[in-house]
Design a protein that fits this description.
The protein is an alpha+beta fold. It is 22% helix and 45% strand. It has a single domain, classed as Gcn5-related N-acetyltransferase (GNAT) (Aminopeptidase, 3-Layer(aba) Sandwich). Strand 4 (65-75) and strand 5 form a beta hairpin. The longest helix is centred in the middle third of the chain and has 15 residues, at 97-111. Residues 18-156 form the N-acetyltransferase domain.
């Protein structure tokens, strides 16, 4: 485990103690959330890949329960850091956890002196990422039959 960042947040009508924990390898906690969201809910079959071995993983916990996750990795062909596999359990959506993951990932990349961050967004989720300054670039493609597009955010020097 590389380190952790704790944040207490007031969500809806009650308080949670939320902790963002970072891992240098795919943790079973991230696997649990991704399986629930991408495999069970969305029907993806090839959720885990070789990128997981070299990615930096973020997991948000509600107490001891993993409730959200994302990963960041460097793509040598694209010459940029990439953010992906952002997943929040259904009961925790709309509480700002996706935003927390994006902020944590962006700070991580900035700490590594990265100048931009790319993500392969589901087209149906583009407006979510646009709120954080990501812009679509290139043609739409598909990932297991789901329309996706590459989006980029460039950081100020």
């Amino acid at each position: 485990m590389a380190g952790s960042k704790a944040a207490k947040r007031s969500l809806r009508t009650y308080n949670y103690d939320l902790t963002i924990t970072q891992y240098d390898e795919l943790s079973p906690f991230a696997m649990l959330v991704r399986t629930s969201v991408f495999v069970n809910e969305q029907g993806y079959k090839n959720e885990f890949d070789f990128i997981d071995e070299n990615a930096h993983h973020f997991v948000i916990f509600d107490g001891k329960k993993p409730v959200a996750t994302a990963r960041v990795y460097f793509d040598a062909l694209m010459e940029t850091y990439c953010l992906g596999r952002i997943a929040v359990l259904k009961d925790y959506r709309g509480l700002g956890l996706g935003e927390d993951l994006i902020e944590a990932a962006q700070n991580y990349v900035k700490d590594l002196h990265g100048r931009n961050l790319a993500l392969h967004a589901q087209v149906s989720k583009m407006s979510f990422y646009e709120r954080f300054g990501y812009q679509a670039e290139g043609e739409q493609d598909e990932d297991e039959g789901v329309p996706h597009v590459w989006m980029w955010k460039r950081f100020a020097e």
